Amino acid sequence: MHSVLFVGIGGFFGACSRYLITQIMKEFFPKFPFGTLLSNLLAGFLIGFIIGFERHSASLDNNLKLFLTTGLLGGLSTFSTYSLETIVMIENGQYAAAVANTLLNLSLSLIFVVFGLIAVKILLKA
User: At what angle do helices 95-125 and 34-56 cross, to 10 degrees?
Assistant: First the structure.
């Protein structure tokens, strides 16, 4: 049962981080949801890094892994917000932006997970 607490605490920090990233990015890019994109890419990179580290080094404590992956990174990444922002773009006739948002979030999120996995390999060989 205490594992739920680790997930909840991690989720709190992840969601707060996502909110702050979104607010900062809105200041610089008010016309496109780069905050959501950045949050998703950061979470993708970090989950790749964490899992890569675990694969090539030592096992993480299960509660720490839950805190980081399910909690922190689950709260940081946001498929539902990305989906809503894309639908609003479509409703507003911003079709090119909606397509760009979809392509950037889906393709780059996958690529950033791979970058995280590769970063671990590079760091552990150094």
Answer: 30
